[in-house]
Structure formats: structure tokens, C-alpha cells
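Listing S7. Sequence submitted for prediction.
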Amino acid sequence: MQLVSLKHVISSDLRMWALMGVCLFHCVFGQLFDSKLKGASRLICSVPGSPGLPGKPGPSGAPGADGNVGILGRDGRDGRKGEKGEKGVTGLKGRVGPTGKIGGRGQRGPAGKRGPAGGSGEVGSLGPSGRDGEKGQQGQRGPRGTAGTCRCGSLLPKSAFSAGITSSYPAEKTPIKFNKVLFDEGGHYNPLTGKFICAYPGIYYFSYDITLANKHLAIGLVQNGQYRIKTFDANTGNHDVASGSTVTYLNPEDEVWLEIFFHDQNGLFSDPGWTDSLFSGFLLYADTDYLDTLAEDYE
């Protein structure tokens, strides 16, 4: 509304000044033309007075037609970054959104701390027996014990055996198993293996009396894999008897047995009805140092 009034005032002023210009031009031009006709050289023209006060604005005219849309102006420059505002009040907790899809497997994280030790599990089954270890060195002698009751009779080592066989013609190069035990003081003869195992060190006497039939007999007394004696008996008839004996020193765990030492010379014969083949042995006397050690242990 103010814009329309301003346009009206400017338009009125222009019309007034145009009218004054026309009047001035008419006056001057008329007097010049008149002076030429009369021969007078005077020029009289009135000077317009000062403009009067603006009149009251006229009534608003009808709105003009809308003008054409102008060209869009360029974006203005970004303003300066404002100062950081104060932290707002924490808003209310929103609703839990819907569960998202399972994502891909991420990279393995670092190892966590070791957890508490678990309880003891059940005892497992017994494993197989391991190999026998090497024999250790003899330990130092322990402190002397208190004196005990004298048992001198029990200090005398006893070891003796005699065994027969119930089969004929045994295998060669292997211990002959005299499986019929007649006597075994101390339990040092094993009929399952045919071996005598020494328990007390000392001097031992061994002998054998073998019935042979149909074949010759090549038999030997073996100590720890080495032949102590060998005997060979030729069978001159249907039956014959071979015998042998020896005295030897044995250490604890030494082994003694009989075996056939020549191929196809195994005429050993046995008949439970009327003949036996025997293997015997016994301790003559134990090692004196060993007996002294036993006596000290019993004191």
C-alpha cells in the first residue's frame, strides 16, 4: 500500500515539473517571437515559485498485474560457525527398535583371561605297564635300628630242589622244563620255565640223572646263558643213563637250567611207570659277608 502511494507522489511531481517546463518554454518562446515582430528587445518571464506542500495521497489504485519471475539468485556464503551451545537435557529413553538381521562373523577377538580351574575329573582306566627301568645305584646305608629279638635259627639261608620230567625228547637250544617238583626248599625253582633262580649268594651243587632211549644225548648245564658243563652219552642199547654234576658260585638273580646243545641228540626219556629223569641242586654254604650283613640287620 505504501509502495502505491510513493509511486503516486513521484508521478504527481513529474507531471508538475513537466507542466512548469512547458509554461516556461511557451513564455520565453512567445516573448522572443513578439519582440522580433515589434522590434523591442525585452524579455519578460515569470519565475515559478517554490513548490507547495505535497498533497494528500490519493486513493490506492487497482493492483497491477504480477510481474515475471526473476532469475534465482546465487547461494549466499556460509555464515560463521556459531559458538557451541550448552548441553541439552537428556531426553526420554526411546522404544526398543525391531531386532536386526544377524550380521556376518567378525574377526576373532583377543584371548580372554583364564577362567577358574575346573573340578577333578573321573579317574581314567589304568594304562599299560611301562618298560622296566634301569637298575639304580645302591643307596647309602641307613641309620642303625633298635636291637630286636634274636632269631639266629632264621638267619641260616636254605635253598634246595629236585624235579623230574613227565615228557620225552624235549626241544633243543631251550631250557628243559622239569615240571614234576619233588622238593623245593625256599621256592627258588620254577617248573614253568625250568630255571633255578639264586636267592642267596654262595656255593651251589647241581646234578642231573637222565634216562635216554633210542637216541644219543648231548646235554649241558647253563648259567646265565653260558655252558658250565657239557656231557655226551651214546646210546648203545635200547636204554641208558647219563649223569653229570658240578659246583659253582652264584650271585643273587643268577639263573641255572639244563638244555640240549646238539641237533637231534635229545634222547631224554621219561616213563611215569618205571623210570625218571631228574634235575637237582642245593646251597652248600652262603657267602659269609652276606651272612654277616644279615646278622647286623637283626641286631
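Caption to Listing S7: primary sequence and predicted C-alpha cells for the chain studied. The helical segments are 2-38, 288-298. The first strand starts at residue 160 and ends at 164.
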